[in-house]
Amino acid sequence: MPSASDSSITSPRGGLANLLILILPPMFWAGNFVVGRAVNGVIPPLTLSFGRWLIALLCILPFAWKTMRRDRLRYLAIRWQLLLISAIGVGAFNTLIYTGLTTTTATNALLLNSFIPILIVLFGALFYHQHLSLRQGIALLTSFSGVLIIVSQGQWQRLTSLSFSQGDLIIFSAMVCWALYTLWLRRIPADIDRIGLMGMQILIGVILLLPLFAWEYLSGQTIRHFDGEVAAAFAYVGIFPSVLAYLLYNLGVDRAGAARAGLFIHLMPAFGAMLSVLFLGEHLHIYQVFGIGAIFAGIILASRRSR
Fold first, then answer.
1. pLDDT values of the chain reduced to their tens digit, one per residue, 307 residues
2. Could you point out which of 87, 167, 292, 305 has its C-alpha 20 to 30 Å from the C-alpha of 97?
3. Based on C-alpha coordinates, what's the Rg of the chain?
4. Which residues, at least 6 apart from 138, have a Cβ–Cβ distance to it below 8 Å?
5. Which tens digit of pLDDT belongs to each residue from 157-208?
6. 12 Cβ contact partners less than 8 Å away, ≥ 6 residues apart
7. Cβ(64)–Cβ(198) under 8 Å?
8. Would you give the end-to-end CA distance of the chain in angstroms?
9. Contact of 7 with 256, CB cutoff 8 Å
């Protein structure tokens, strides 16, 4: 399997298009965290997860169905890999996120989410013999320090006062799922059409989530009220962080490698801060500027072509 250092995001073959492919998913996922917290208490977590992927399936099927039928024998040949990445990347990851957000803080969720690039590198080195260069290691630590600056609001003593709950363990287990999803996704043959592959992942995820949603509904946990805001929340999570972000992330992993693609997840708290300024009327603080700068510095360092 090719290592993460085989290609450069900023190479002539990649260029600006590849950079945008990797930047957009964390922006959409940052919005997913915001929406997930906003509807907490209104939409049960399993209902939100199932509804999200059902909407995503309806959106992608018109574009993916023809390819899914054509490649069905290829899917059968990699059925166990396909089942695994669908179960952890579609079924488990988002369900665990929504469940964890009911009992943990936004600060903790962002901090735990930022461990994904580290987990990708760690699991890649332990299980898949992926090489991490000194430059990439420095880039990873630089971008992670930017996350810590944002989370701690520029006051490092805040990190020592963070308390962790059961929800944090649930969130961290979701991070493990995403790290494995990223590495296993890299092992899917690159010539398999990514839109059809995404359609199959979502279809399998919806089938796996259906009994969980039914259990939650029959246990009395239902949507408290359905209005325009709830509909907008479902529409957003079903389209942007699901269909668009997953397609772009799958493409980014294929082009840039698991380690580099995972590093861009550090942009989520940066985008979270920007979205809060744009849509929630919050102010941009100097520590956020420094944190965002450190994140981008790490990404640029990791994206430079190796000599």
1. 333 344 444 444 456 788 889 899 999 988 887 788 778 889 999 999 999 999 999 999 999 999 999 999 999 999 999 999 999 999 999 899 888 888 876 666 766 777 888 888 888 888 887 777 777 778 778 878 877 786 677 777 777 776 667 888 898 899 899 999 989 988 898 889 989 999 999 999 999 999 999 999 999 999 999 999 999 999 999 999 999 999 999 888 888 887 788 888 878 877 877 776 776 566 777 877 787 788 778 777 766 654 4
2. 292
3. 19
4. 298, 301
5. 777 776 667 888 898 899 899 999 989 988 898 889 989 999 999 999 999 9
6. none
7. yes
8. 21
9. yes
Q: Which two tokens stand for residue 1?
A: 């399997």
C-alpha span between 147 and 25 (Å, rounded): 17
b/e code 31-52 from CB counts within 10 Å (16+ = b): bbbbbbbebeebbbbbbbbbbb
Q: pTM of this prediction? A: 0.80
157 and 130 Cβ atoms separated by less than 8 Å: no
**CA 99, CA 22: separation in Å to the nearest integer?**
26
